[in-house]
Amino acid sequence: MHSTTETDGERQPFYLVCIATRSFDDRTGPEFSAQGRGEYALGEVPLTLEGLDGIDLKPEEIAHVLREAVGAGSLGAEASL
After folding, report:
1. Span 33-44, mean pLDDT?
2. If you average pLDDT over each of 13-17, 46-50, 57-61, which comes out highest?
3. 10, 21, 36, 64 from 69: Cα distances, Å
4. Would you report the helix, strand and coil content of the chain in percent, each value rounded to 5?
5. Is residue 5 part of a domain?
6. Are 45 and 54 contacting, i.e. CB atoms less than 8 angstroms apart?
7. Would 40 be classed as within a structural domain?
């Protein structure tokens, strides 16, 4: 899934991807190497309306698109096979 939001003339693309495997040790980029960067903890959220309603998903435009797709059954484990 791909969507774009625009705020104050700035466009921001958003992508929903399926991650087959992940390695916390292999994460790279300036957000991981910066001094005092804080913590980037990943959390799993069920791709259901209940799961999405349990988090503060931002921006609202993307939250709406994602909830609509989940509600229509066009996302989830069954749809990505």
Report:
1. 77
2. 46-50
3. 25, 24, 37, 9
4. 30, 15, 55
5. no
6. yes
7. no
